[in-house]
Design a protein that fits this description.
There is one protein chain. With 101 residues, this protein is of the alpha+beta class. It has 3 helices and 6 strands; from the N terminus they run αββββββαα. Strand 2 (17-18) and strand 3 (21-22) form a beta hairpin. The longest helix has 13 residues, at 83-95.
């Protein structure tokens, strides 16, 4: 099976659907941990940034990239805009035992 990072080009937009319904307006941008661009909306990142940068081969959804911009007005506005869809998404993941906090 081809790894997701080879199927989706970096900086490509990704739309999220659940049960055939569109979830996130604008989708998310696929980024890598060494991306030098700033994104103020959802990003799908290969690897995690939790005090340190770790490329563990897993994917994480972040509200922005890099995380140092998490408290900007643009990111807060986008987080608020996505709140209902995010709640739907996380409830679904939790119901399937896939949500990790």
């Amino acid at each position: 099976m081809e790894p997701l990072r080879e199927k989706i080009p970096l900086l490509a937009g990704i739309d999220f659907y659940l049960g055939g319904e569109f979830l996130f307006s604008g989708g998310a941008t696929h980024v890598g941990l060494i991306c030098s661009q700033v994104f103020d909306n959802l990003v799908l990142c290969c690897g995690k940034i939790d005090g340190e940068v770790v490329d563990d081969g897993h994917y994480y959804l972040y509200d922005c990239y890099p995380l140092q911009f998490i408290d900007t007005d643009a990111v807060k506005a986008n987080r608020e805009k996505n709140a209902t869809q995010w709640e739907t998404f996380t409830k679904y993941l939790e119901s399937k035992g896939k949500l990790k906090k």
